[in-house]
Specification:
Elements (H helix, E strand, L loop, with lengths): L1 E12 L2 E12 L3 E5 L6 H8 L7 E6 L14 E4 L11 H12 L4 H10 L15 H13 L5 E5 L7 H16 L3 E5 L3 H7 L2 E6 L2 E6 L4
Parallel strand pairs: 3-7, 3-8, 5-6, 6-7
Antiparallel strand pairs: 1-2, 1-4, 8-9
Helix pairs in contact: 2-3, 3-4
The protein binds adenosine-5'-triphosphate and magnesium ion.
Adenosine-5'-triphosphate (ATP) binds next to helix 1.
């Protein structure tokens, strides 16, 4: 089943062309890795898929099951792109609770379970501004998964994680795939891509090139 379809998408910023007439189909239940050098447009592509920015030309179609009725907002998407907006002077749990209050789908206990799952202590009163980089990354990951979203858009979600946390996160993502979830991710660590991804998409010369992932 097609979840996301990009058709003839072009995007430029102030004359800098990032995507030139690209097409891409994302199928349910697979893990896709998006690779390309710094500044090649990975985060921009994810933002376009989430509807945060519009393409200059072409269309991005999200399957209706994954959109809220009457809107383009893909409510079934759990997203980490760039640095998420946190409130620094409250705890991690309080931050997630505020996020959860938007859709009101998850109870406190589920939020706490999610925090434990990613390796955070939900009961610590520690303020988020005092979190380490890796802890902030885990909090972002918790936010992306806490509502049991069907599609995960994870932009560099492995950054700053320690070795055990990387292994834990990889296991979690593979188990989500088993459940039929769909994952799009970027990582500058080729090992993440090789271990996790069924399909690898490389940005080359403003085009998307599909590579076969043979693993190393
Ligand atoms: N809102 C914006 N306005 C103007 N230029 C932008 C905007 N967003 C991104 N860009 C530019 O688009 C290019 C691609 O940025 P993007 O963040 O997608 O790169 P990336 O592939 O994610 O890089 P990295 O590997 O460093 O994360 C960059 O040159 C960036 O400066
Ligand atoms: Mg980026």
């Amino acid at each position: 089943m097609k979840i996301i379809e990009l058709s003839n998408v072009s995007k430029a910023f102030k004359g800098q062309l990032l995507f030139n007439d690209v097409n891409l189909t994302i199928e349910k239940g697979r893990i896709y890795g998006l690779v390309g050098p710094n500044g090649s447009g990975k985060s921009v592509l994810f933002k376009m898929i989430c509807g945060f920015i519009k393409p200059d030309q072409g269309q991005i179609i999200i399957h209706s099951d994954y959109r809220r009725k009457g809107t383009d907002f893909p409510h079934q998407f759990g997203v980490i792109i760039d640095r998420p907006g946190y409130i620094g002077n409250i705890s991690g749990f309080e931050n997630l609770k505020r996020w959860a209050s938007i859709l009101n789908l998850v109870k406190d206990e589920q939020i706490k379970d999610t925090m434990r799952l990613v390796g955070l202590n939900p009961d610590t009163p520690q303020k988020v501004r005092n979190y380490s980089l890796g802890m902030k990354q885990k909090l972002a990951f918790a936010q992306a998964i806490m509502e049991d979203q069907e599609v995960l858009i994870l932009d560099e979600s492995f950054n700053a994680l320690d070795a055990d946390s990387v292994i834990n996160t990889r296991k979690l993502l593979l188990s989500y795939k088993q459940e039929g979830k769909t994952i799009l991710l970027t990582s500058h660590n080729r090992e993440d891509i090789d271990i996790l991804c069924d399909d690898v998409i490389q940005i080359t010369n403003q085009r998307l090139e599909r590579l076969v992932n043979v693993g190393d």
